[in-house]
Write a structure and sequence with these properties.
single chain; 179 residues; alpha+beta; four-stranded antiparallel beta sheet; 5 helices; binds iron/sulfur cluster
C-alpha cells in the first residue's frame, strides 16, 4: 500500500469519506455529453466563475490537464436527507462536502508537489466571483466541478466499485483528485 493510500485508509472515517477508489488517470472517462449540459446552462453556473466553462477550457484541454497526472482518486460523501425536496438542506449538505474536499485536497497537497482537485457543481466561495476581470482569489480552494471537466461520474463510479446512488433519501457527492 502506498503512503497516500495508507493515510486515506486511516483518515477515511474522520473525514466522513463514504467510499473511495484509486485509479490511473488514463482510465477516467471524459465525454462531451456532460459538457453539453454545462453549455445549456442547466445548473445556471455557466460563465459565472473560474470553476466552470468556458473558463476551465475545452473538454480536450481538461482531459489533457488531468492526464498530466499519473494517478487519480475518487471519493464520495453521503448526505442523508430529512426532507426529499429541501433546497436549503441540499445547499447545506453540498457545503459540507466542499469542506470535506478541502481537507482531502490538503492531504494530497502535503504529499505531492502538484495535484488537481475537482468537486461538485462549481465554485461559490466568494460573494462575487472575480471572473472574468481578475484572477481567482483562492486558487487552492477553488475546485472545478467534475462535470465541467467532462467526467461522467455516473459511468466512472461503477468502474471504481463506488455506488452512484445510495437510496431515495440520500445524496451522494463526488470529488476527484489527480496527482
Ligand atoms: S474562489 Fe472566488 S474568485 Fe475563485 S472561482 Fe471561486 S468565487 Fe471565483
Amino acid at each position: 500500500m502506498s503512503r497516500i493510500e495508507e493515510i486515506i485508509s486511516q483518515e477515511k472515517d474522520k473525514l466522513y469519506i463514504h467510499e473511495y477508489a484509486f485509479m490511473k488517470s488514463n482510465t477516467v472517462i471524459f465525454s462531451d455529453e456532460v459538457r453539453m449540459l454545462c453549455n445549456k446552462n442547466v445548473c445556471g453556473m455557466y460563465g459565472t466563475s473560474w470553476a466552470c466553462p468556458p473558463a476551465v477550457g475545452s473538454v480536450e484541454e481538461c482531459k489533457n490537464r488531468c492526464n498530466d497526472f499519473e494517478n487519480a482518486f475518487m471519493f464520495t460523501s453521503l448526505a442523508k436527507l430529512k426532507k426529499k425536496y429541501d433546497v436549503a438542506e441540499w445547499r447545506e449538505t453540498r457545503l459540507l462536502h466542499e469542506s470535506i474536499t478541502e481537507k482531502v485536497a490538503r492531504i494530497f497537497r502535503d504529499e505531492f508537489k502538484e495535484s488537481l482537485t475537482l468537486s461538485t457543481e462549481g465554485c461559490n466561495l466568494c460573494e462575487k466571483c472575480t471572473y472574468p476581470e481578475k484572477p481567482c482569489r483562492f486558487p487552492n480552494r477553488m475546485f472545478p466541478a467534475t462535470e465541467s471537466f467532462g467526467i461522467m461520474v455516473i459511468q466512472q463510479a461503477p468502474l471504481c466499485n463506488i455506488k452512484y446512488n445510495n437510496g431515495t433519501n440520500a445524496i451522494t457527492y463526488f470529488s476527484m483528485i489527480f496527482f
